[in-house]
Amino acid sequence: MPSSTLMIRLHEATDEIHAQIQELPYLKALERRDLPLESYVGQLRAMAVLHGVLEHELPVRRDARLGAVWMEDMRRFSRVQSDLTFFAPRAVLDIPAVHEAAKALADRILQRSLDAPITLLGYLYVLEGSILGAEVLAPLAKEAFGLDPRRGLAYLAWDSAAARERWRGFGERMDTVPVTAEETDAIVIAALEAFAGIRRIFQALYPFDPADLALKVTALNPEAGAHPVPDNPMEVEAAIRAGRRCCLEYPYFAWRYGERGQRYTYSDSAWLATLISRDQAMVNVQVEWLGGVLASRGMPRILLQRHLELLYEELAARVLERKEEDVAKLLVAADRLAGQRRAVIADADFDAIRARFEQAAGPDWRVRLPGVGAMLVSAVADQIHGIEEAVASLEGWLTDPNRFPPHWIAAVRDALREARARAVAVRKGPAETAG
Ligand code: HEM
């Protein structure tokens, strides 16, 4: 039986490697205020990967001993995400070696979660302890980059007393969890492994070779799959601006999907921008596919149509070396979506239903959630085009009595009813006359 506690064992075993991390050029550069923004944002991206994986694995293991230490309010993924959302419009480039190191460490967490979940306590110790280091880093990053907790500093900024209290509570839980001597050794080895991976991340963060910088979709949205983004930073910037404008025009995105929705809007936007090098038929197929996915999740295709129009505008304004006709493919795809809707609901009906909805919703709600009338009509048309969940995925949210007053809910239902009635009439009309 070792005489020292788990926390003392961890502290003693990792003291040296922790000191090594503090000696790395990263900290010196931050102190001198000449750490590049790519390094700071790279740190946040790497930590987002580690927190994302660890905070997902700990609760799903349903291990009583892990559960005795892990508490839901220990999550830090959303803090780091809110910082990354703040930086997203700047399209900060990725340092690929950092990304690799974070990914390798995330793989180790996943492996341990399967083979020896109790050893994740070693990782938890390292990440939890980093809050104490954050107290040192936060004022430096604040000065160096002009940040505050709501603008890029949420992950590092801690109230000192709260941080100490949190660390004390964590230590107590760690020291009372029943672990064997063998398990203690394995937890210490895991903590050393975590620190070694983090040292690798901090080594890669600074200095780096600017020629290696790249933009990966995970930089825009760590949850997005490995789909491509444009090589040209101007195109990425255009994509982000288009995504932002779309979110501003439709506050529905932020209200319903939160920051996560915004991140997806950025990464989808960047993906759409890569399509301009494909031929028109391929652009149409891909847009069709994305439109179906989004409409089934509560985002009728009129939103994608608008997004494509905005993306066209942003790209056309800045990507001069691109052939005009390449960028125009996006507009063709947007028009195609509009044309499909028109084939089901005539523009005059579309406008009338939308106007009646807005009237019934009243001025307050019209301002809070603009564009909903058009979305409702679009969802009905989408459903008639075979996207089965198009209406249900929107109606359910928009008629939740916990969220909306009765007059709004009635207006939503009326608009859907009317759109269905008009849609059928229009659909039958030309077919009957043609026949
Ligand atoms: C690079 C700059 C860093 C600085 C300046 C720094 C600084 C500090 C400070 C001042 C403490 C508190 C010591 C105490 O109150 O006893 C601490 C503790 C700790 N830090 Fe760091 N740290 C840094 C990086 C990191 C990183 C990157 C990690 C891991 C992700 C980390 C993990 C820890 C842990 C686990 C502890 C708790 C050690 C213990 O008492 O058991 N630190 N750090």
CATH architecture call of the largest domain: Up-down Bundle
Question: Helix content range of the residues, please?
Answer: over 70%
Contiguous helical run count: 19
Mean of residue pLDDT values: 89
Rg to the nearest angstrom? 26 Å
Number of strand segments: 0
Provide an overview of this structure.
The protein has 435 residues and is an all-alpha fold. It folds into three domains: 6-214, Heme Oxygenase, Chain A; 233-342, no CATH class; 347-434, no CATH class. It is built from 19 helices and no strands. The longest helix has 29 residues, at 406-434. The radius of gyration is 26 Å and the shape is globular. It starts with 5 loop residues before the first helix and ends with a helix. The relative contact order is 0.09. The structure holds protoporphyrin IX containing FE. Protoporphyrin IX containing FE (HEM) binds next to helix 1 and helix 7.
In short:
By secondary structure, the protein is mainly α.
Features:
single chain, 435 residues, mainly alpha, Heme Oxygenase, Chain A, 3 domains, 19 helices, 0% strand, globular, disordered C terminus, binds protoporphyrin IX containing FE
Topology:
Layout (H helix, E strand, L loop, with lengths): L5 H18 L1 H7 L5 H24 L3 H6 L7 H11 L8 H20 L4 H26 L14 H17 L4 H25 L11 H4 L12 H17 L2 H23 L5 H17 L4 H18 L5 H19 L4 H22 L3 H13 L7 H7 L7 H29 L1
Bound molecules: protoporphyrin IX containing FE.
Protoporphyrin IX containing FE (HEM) binds next to helix 1 and helix 7.
